Amino acid sequence: MAKFSWRKAAVVAAVVPLVALSACSSQGGKPADSGGGAGAGQVAGTDRIKVALITHAAAGDTFWDIVRKGAEEASSKDNVELLYTSDPEAGRQAQLVQQAIDQKVDGIAVTVATPDALKDVLKKATDAGIPVVSLNAGESVSSQLGAFTHFGSNEQLAGEAVGTRLAAEGYKHPVCVIQQQGHVGLEARCAGVKAKVPATEILYVDGKDMTAVQSTATAKLQASKDADVIIGLGAPITLTLLKSVTDASSSSKVASFDLNAELAQKIVDGQVIFTVDQQPWLQGYMSVDALWQAKRGGFKIGGGQPVLTGPTIVDKANASDVLKFAQQGVR
């Protein structure tokens, strides 16, 4: 698999057999299925702890299913009770963090897509002695908000990877589609593309309404005849953009960030030219495992620096191999 070598990042994970866990979800707090996993067996012998994983996931976004699966597998091996909640609205996500503090959890893993909305409540968490790690979004502000490390891709560099690849293949007028205005990670992705291909245009859409995404992107492609590639910043968005290209009778190619099994198949079939994968399963797994390591021995993975889980390019050369893992829900 082709990889971009950016800067060194520590990746530490204890390898212990797996068992099932109970987890609360944002849909009523029902126990979640851990998915079993190969090698199910004896759990870690440490005292059981409670960890909250709080994301800005929107309903129906399959990316977060993969993050959660990683977190659940780590929880099952580490003897962790995992409390998973999510809300795409920043104020409500902050309320979920406060709820975890009130529950006296032993650790919090949180996505920081909207730092200003979360900074006060995360300070409450660290003031209460609860260790915090961030994942997926917020790498640049993670340490300022009290997290001892961050698991994710450097989004600016990921965007530059896409821009470099597009420029090398002769694309000159990309359209970069942002599905949530103000999301620091998404804005950084498009900024990275634009740094390498200056004619890149930004198109804002409402990622919670796929019908609106499709119609807005269709109108843009109809109006911008020189657009030669349109870029989705998440698999569901990219799959919708494929419909927009057809609707607009556009010759524009489609590129992407992130991955799911359906998108991997589109790359195999040649309908999407490539994607940049940030390996979300690892983000969920390592976030929970890092909090367990901190509790059991005071270990702080990352040495105060972010731990990078990407970017990794997936194109037609390696998409068939990646598809096998995506179909298992771990890519």
Commentary on this structure:
The structure is a single chain. The chain is of the alpha/beta class. It folds into two domains: 23-152 and 280-309, Rossmann fold; 155-277, Rossmann fold, CATH 3.40.50.2300. Helix content is 40%, strand content 18%. The chain is built from ten helices and 13 strands. It has helices at 63-78, 90-102, 115-127, 155-168, 184-196, 210-223, 235-247, 261-268, 280-297, 319-327, and strands at 23-24, 49-55, 80-86, 107-110, 132-135, 150-153, 174-178, 201-204, 229-232, 253-257, 274-277, 307-310, 312-315. The chain has a seven-stranded parallel beta sheet, with helices on both faces. The protein has a six-stranded mixed beta sheet with strand order 8-7-9-10-11-13, sandwiched between helices. Helix 6 (210-223) packs across helix 7 (235-247). The radius of gyration is 20 Å and the shape is elongated.
* Fraction of residues in β-strands: 15-25%
**Biggest sheet details:** 7 strands, parallel
Strand arrangement, largest sheet?
Answer: 1-3-2-4-5-6-12
Coarse shape: elongated
Order of helical and strand elements: EEHEHEHEEHEHEHEHEHEHEEH
Structural class of the helix and strand makeup? Answer: alpha/beta
CATH architecture identity of the largest domain: 3-Layer(aba) Sandwich
**Record field, number of beta strands:** 13
Unreliable runs: 1-40
Indicate the percent of residues in helices.
25-40%
Radius of gyration: 20 Å
Under CATH, the homologous superfamily of the largest domain reads Response regulator
CATH class of the largest domain: Alpha Beta
* CATH topological fold name of the largest domain: Rossmann fold
Q: Supply the number of helical segments.
A: 10
Count of folded domains: 2
